[in-house]
Amino acid sequence: MVVSDFALKALDGRNYRLSEYRGEVVAVVFWASWCGPCRDELSRLQSLRELYADAGLQVLAVSMDERTDAAASVAASLRLTYPQLHDADLALSKVWDPQRLPATYLFGRAGELRYLQLGSDAQSRIDLVARVRTLLDE
Fold first, then answer.
1. Is 87 left (phi over 0), alpha (psi -120 to 50) or beta?
2. Is 1 within a domain?
3. What is the DSSP string of 49-103?
4. pLDDT digits (tens, 9 = 90+) for 20-70
5. What pTM does this model have?
6. Which CATH number fits the domain that encloses residue 122?
7. Which residues contact 106 (CB under 8 A, 6 or more apart)?
8. What pLDDT, on the 0 to 100 scale, is given for residue 123?
């Protein structure tokens, strides 16, 4: 699967572009405030980011909520420190087409999509950590 670069505004007003993170391992997670498993995934990615930040792991969360206040409330309650982007018109979601939430796209240092995780269960959480470690070691 080939995914396109994007530029989205974060809840803090700053614009982010996926291509800015070449040279780092990047997890892009699509989520929504009404999705219970999404909250777990966001927390797990926060922990991974804290653990592997110095090794080059970046996380970008893309909220599919209509309203920014719903996404901001979840991000604040989970104490997320990575960028919270808002796909206001769902244009990026239509292009990337996450089939299930949460949808976590994992990119290697060259910017290539290396792994896509749809949903979240015990095995997929183990797989994601293993894949992040492998990509960081490359």
1. beta
2. no
3. HHHHGGGTEEEEEEE--SSHHHHHHHHHHTT--S-EEE-TT-HHHHHH--SSSSE
4. 999 999 999 999 999 999 999 999 999 999 999 999 999 999 999 998 999
5. 0.94
6. 3.40.30.10
7. 25, 26, 27, 113, 114, 115, 116, 117, 128, 131, 132, 135
8. 85
